Structures are given as C-alpha cells and as structure tokens.
Amino acid sequence: MLTKPVFAADLVSTSNIRRALAIAAHPDDIDFGAGATIAALTDAGVEVTFCLVTSGDAGGFELDQTREQMVARRQQEQRDAARELGVDQVCFLDHSDGYVEPTHRLISQLVGVMRQVQPEVVISQHPQRNWERIQASHPDHLAVGEATARAIYPAVENPFAYPELELPAFHIGQLWMMGAPTELANLAVDVTDHVERKLSALHRHVSQHPDPKVMDDRVRAALAANHPEVDRAAERFHVVAVNDETTFAGF
Known about the structure:
With about 250 residues, the chain is an alpha/beta fold. The chain has one domain (about 10-240): LmbE-like (Rossmann fold). The protein has 7 helices and 7 strands; from the N terminus they run αβαβαβαβαββααβ. Strand 2, helix 3 (about 65-85) and strand 3 (about 90-95) form a beta-alpha-beta unit. It is globular and about 50 Å long. This is LmbE family N-acetylglucosaminyl deacetylase. Keywords: Zinc. Pfam families: PIG-L.
C-alpha cells in the first residue's frame, strides 16, 4: 500500500544510506524510473553508481547507423545523463539489447558489481509484469529485475557463491524496485524539487527521444499522478527490506 510521499533526505538520514547502486537493462531506464530520486539522493550526499546490463544496441531510429555506432552513442548519452543527476560512476555489462535473461553469468556479474560498490540500497527494475503499463515491463526489464533479486539474495551475501570473483560477501540493506505494479508500490519519494534535473537527464538521450516536449509532458503528468497533492511530484517504488528494516521508521 502506497504511503504518504517522503523526502529522500529523510530516508538517507533514517536509514544511514551512504552508497546506492542503480541497475537497469538499457540506457535511459534509470533516468525514467528513478532519475529525480537519484538527484535527490546525490544532493543528500549519497554516492550513486549506475550499472547498465546492455548498451542499448537495439535502440534508436536512425537506420543508417551501425549497431557499433549506436552502442558508443548510447553509452555516452548515459554518462552525460548520469552527470546531470550527480552520478560519475557508470558501468556497462554489454549484454545484447532484447536478449537479456537471468542467467548465472549475469547474476555473477551483478554480484561482482554489488560486492565492489557495497551499497546500502540497490535500485533496480521489477521482476513482475505491470499490466497497467506494459511498456514498463519490457522483457529485458523483467530479466534484470529477476537477476538482481537473485544476486541480492542469497548470492551476494553467500561467501561460497561465485568464489571466482575473489570478492568478499556483502549484505544489501534494501531493494527499491522501479516500474512496480500499483498494488505493490509501498514507497513514494517527493521529487518536486528535482523534476527539472530528471528532465535534463532524459534530454541527454537524444537518440531515443525525437520529440522532447511530448516526453516532458508525459513525464510531468506521471510524476504528478504519483503525488496526492496538487503541484507536487513523486516517484514510487516497491521497497523490500533485505537486511535493513529502517526504511519507513518514523513515517
């Protein structure tokens, strides 16, 4: 059940969030799903890392571009967008766009990234299809959500899982999932003061959004619909306490 929107800075202080890792299938997925929240988190002093499972090689509208050219372009667009949100660390796992599956190879890669970053919070996509807006449930999104969940528990905290990584086991505090079915969303973050930063990040993905005004209008309407008050905006998530139940303390 969705609660009253809270501010990211309050979540940071309550849950002692210092590092967050955002994982998604394609460039621009994080910016759409959590861009304003991430801007609020970095403003509150949280160090955020982006991990993109693909480089978006199947995206774009220009048929004269090679896939290699599109990969280079989309990776740079994502780095530029991340900087708009206060994020400097961006990695790509180079899986093929449109063919992502929750394989042990992908889970191992995600475990490796998690153990290196050691975040208190992982932000990722939801493994359950949202029938109210199927575009949020691209098969790659569902696969990344499932692989992330498997990596978070039990793999990342099991010292006997993927020993070839030669990285120490680590416990994740919380999982925040984007694109959740409405009935599962239990956290709304008030992002009213960070909407413009989100849009600035999305505008960096030039290859994907030929009509930025239409995109802006759609994003603003969605953020407004997530907040019960007029002239306010929110992003919503399905939050699972993996090893930290303080997310909602005091709210």
